[in-house]
Every structure is written in C-alpha cells, then in structure tokens.
Amino acid sequence: MGCGEDPGAGCRPMRWPGAQNDGVPTYRDSAVVLRTHPLGEADRIITLLTREHGRVRAVARGVRRTGSKFGARLEPMGLVDVQLHTGRSLDSISQAESLFSFGADLAADYPRWTAAQAICETAERLTPEEREPAVQQFQLLVGGLRALAERGHAPGLVLDAYLVRSLAVAGWAASFAACARCGAPGPHRSFSLPGGGALCPACRLPGSATPRPGTLELLGALLAGDWALADASDDRVRREASGLVAAYLQWHLERQLKSLPLVERA
Amino acid sequence: MYEGIVQDVIDALGRLPGIGPKGAQRIAFHLLKADPEEVTALAEALVALREQVRFCAICGNVAQEETCGICRDPRRDPAQLCVVEESKDVVAIERTREFRGRYHVLGGAISPMEGIGPDDLRIRELMARLADGVVQEVILATDPNLEGEATAAYLARMIAPLGLTVSRLASGLPVGGDLEFADEVTLGRAFEGRRRIGGQG
C-alpha cells in the first residue's frame, strides 16, 4: 500500500467502447464488491466500486442458487472483471470473472476481516454519488485489501492508513505535523477535529485534544506510507491514533460507521 | 389504487420479502376468489404463528413449547452439536438424514457492515452449552459465504481453548454437475478439501 503505486493496475479490463448487445448498452470494468443484498428468491443487489464508473449498484440474477457460476465470484471483497447491462434504475451483471479474491483469506482471520469490512464500508460512504468516477478511491481500496491479505502489517494500522488516505482523497486531509490553520511547522501538541488536525498554541481551539507525543507522528507516518515508523509504534499510541482517526472520520461523514466499533484490534 | 380493505391487503402483502406490488395484487385477488375456509385457515395459521411459535430455550430453533422436538428427543446424540445460522438450516440438514446430533441456532452471522457483531448472536448461549462437558464435537455449519466463514473462524477461535473437536462443513462441487462448469472459487475449495480414496488410510 505504498504511495503513488497503482494496486489495481494489473487488473485493468479490456476496453470495450460503446459495446452493444442486441441494442442493450453494455460496459465492462474492473471492480471491488463492497457489499451484497438479497433480492427476491435467488438474486442479489451487488454494490461495486468500479475503476472507471465509480460506485455502481447492479442486479446479479440467480447468484444465490448453488449452481450459479457468479455466486462465488461476486462475494464481498472480491476484485472482479464485470460486464454490465445498463438498466433504467439498476444495471445488471451479465458476466463476472474473478481477478483476485481477498475475502477467502481474510474471512479466516477475524481481526483482518473486520478491518476489511470497515474499509469496504468507508469506500462506500466516501463515494456518495453513483457513477461518479473515483479512480483514486478504487486504487486505495484495492491497496488496502491487498495489504490486509498480505499480512505484512497489523490490521489496525492498515485500516487507519486506509482511513486517513481515503479521507485525504475525499478532500478532508488532516494535518498531523504543520498547524492546520496557520501552517506553522510542527510538531504541535493539540489536535482538533473541526480545526482540521494539529494546531499550534496560537491557533488552538477550545475542546482540542492533546494526544501523546508519538500519536500524531504515527498518523503522519500512516498518511505518508512510512511503515517502518508505523510498525515500530507501541500499542497505546496505536489505540489513541485509532480513536482520533475514527472521530475524524465520523466528524466528516456526520455518522458513525456500523463496522468500525466491531473491528477487533489486537 | 383500490378502495379500503383490498388496498390494505395489497399493501400488507407487498411488504413481505420477495413480493412486489403486482404479486401482492395477484395474491389479494386470488384470496378474494378462493374458498372462504382456505382463507380463514390461512388467517388463523398466521395468527397462531405469531402467538404460539417461540424459540427453543436450549438451541434457539423455532418451537411451540419451551424446548424444540430435537432437544427433547432422547435418541439424538448429545455429544455432537451442529451450529447453524437460522432455523431453516436445521430443516435443510435434517433432510439429509446424515446427522443425529443436536443443533444450536445462532440467529444469523457476524456482519460488521450491517452492525451485527458477536454479541448480537446466540454465541454466549453456545459457550454456556459447551461448558458442561457433554458436547465432544462441534460442527460449524454456517453458510459457505464470507460472513459464514468469518463467523466460523470466530467460533473456532472461541471454542479452541475448550479442547473439543471442531469441524467445518466441506465446500466443493455440487453432486450431478460437470467439472468444467464449476467456478474457480468452488473448484479451488474442492481441491483444498479433497480426500483419500482406495484404502490408503
């Protein structure tokens, strides 16, 4: 999950511009399955974050039947190459090929799976408009799930790194070093949610938190991808950093994520 | 829009899972034409469903008494316990006639995105059942999807300190199907769960 790389680059689908199928417009894209909802007897509504078409909700017919070829491919946290028919209200999935399934590995490791759930819910919440391209959010999502599946870092750190970066991509980047109001170089002791991050003594707002000395440094490392510093941090600093990130996320989303309190942090 | 009671019935039916507005209208007019005794029997069955059906105090399955028929049956093996998500899974496993132990119904699967955590399921009751030393094997029969797998992983971790045998239902190829049509995930699982044949142990 390093900065600047494109984790989903190897899974770019073949371009199929303006493909038509008996007059029904179709398109093809690579996507991560964020969540699924049952629909009718055997169908599902699949929420996808696609590379080029942003968040899309589409119907997958018959996938709950045991004989379905789609069912296993359209499980949450799967990276898939999908072909969709454009519909009036919802598109429908006509083909799906599995590019990589993060879910199977993650489901066997409860702390990592709960972290992945929080990542998927955040990706859904940070892409509020359907069909609005969100390439960076897609890349971050693939990178976050891949980092969790590769088990190179603690799942709580991967989740917090994803959260601070996805918030930054969404336009809510917090400052963890320089003062968020006047830009005075840090480090600073105060952290304010409405203030946008670290604040210098002159700009300190009432109600600002005063985290431990290493906490803002850890958050800055997670944002910048300094994993050596992040992996060396101690549990108390990690817990405090997680609390600040969760509060900052909730402040901007104006609602708590359902999955975040259920994330099991070792 | 119809008047009064007809529209009320259509609206009520339309709120049921899997029934859309057209289906609700079709059922409502079918009930209007049907034998009055059949309709009365249906209405009485619905009222009885809500008034008389409860959940078994031991396993959480649907029951009409304090405990369900399976928990009361002395011929069932108390050493084997099959953990399922819903009561309908009990019925599915009973149809196989392969399992003679008892059940524990969790009431769903862990789903953080829906806000359902371990404390929202009957996991505490399961651990209390396992603590008395009667159960020797726990079979985790949660659904073969990610939430079911994660719930099984969580339960396996909780049960491990008790020293019981914990098994998971196998996943693989459907009986009667062709190998070439199997999706890669299912086929991969079938390879993982392959077993020896031909008397090699």
How would you describe the overall organization of this protein?
The complex is a heterodimer of chains A (266) and B (201). With 266 residues, chain A is of the alpha+beta class. In chain A, 33% of the residues lie in helices and 22% in strands. In chain A, strands 2-3-4-6-5 form a five-stranded mixed beta barrel. Chain A has a two-stranded antiparallel sheet with strand order 7-8. Chain A is elongated, with a radius of gyration of 20 Å. About 3% of the residues of chain A have low confidence. Chain B is α/β, with parallel strands linked by helices and 201 residues long. Chain B has two domains: 49 residues, Helicase, Ruva Protein, domain 3 (Orthogonal Bundle), CATH 1.10.8.420; 133 residues, Dna Topoisomerase Vi A Subunit, Chain: A, domain 2 (3-Layer(aba) Sandwich), CATH 3.40.1360.10. In chain B, 43% of the residues lie in helices and 12% in strands. Chain B is built from eight helices and six strands; from the N terminus they run αααββαβαβαβαβα. A four-stranded parallel beta sheet of chain B has the order 4-3-5-6. In chain B, strands 1-2 form a two-stranded antiparallel sheet. In chain B, β3, α5 and β4 form a beta-alpha-beta unit. In chain B, α1 crosses α2. At the A-B interface, α1 and α2 of A face α7 and α8 of B.
Which descriptors would you attach to this protein?
heterodimer, A: 266 residues, alpha+beta, five-stranded mixed beta barrel, two-stranded antiparallel ribbon, B: 201 residues, Helicase, Ruva Protein, domain 3, Dna Topoisomerase Vi A Subunit, Chain: A, domain 2, 8 helices, globular
Short description:
The complex is a heterodimer of chains A (266) and B (201). By secondary structure, chain A is of the alpha+beta class.
The gross shape of chain A turns out to be elongated
| Separation, N- and C-terminal Cα atoms of chain A | 21 Å
Mean pLDDT of chain A: 87
Tell me how many strands of chain B there are: 6
Shape of chain B: globular
Rg of chain B over CA atoms, rounded to whole Å, is: 22 Å
Domains of chain B, number? 2
Order of helices and strands of chain A: EEEEEEHHHHEEHHH
| Helix percentage of chain A | 25-40%
The strands making up the biggest β-sheet of chain A line up spatially as 2-3-4-6-5
- How many extended strands of chain A? 8
Q: How many strands, what sense, and barrel or not for the largest sheet of chain B?
A: 4 strands, parallel
The chain pair with the largest interface is:
A-B, 34 and 24 residues
Please work out how many helical segments of chain A DSSP would assign. 7
Percentage beta strand of chain A: 15-25%
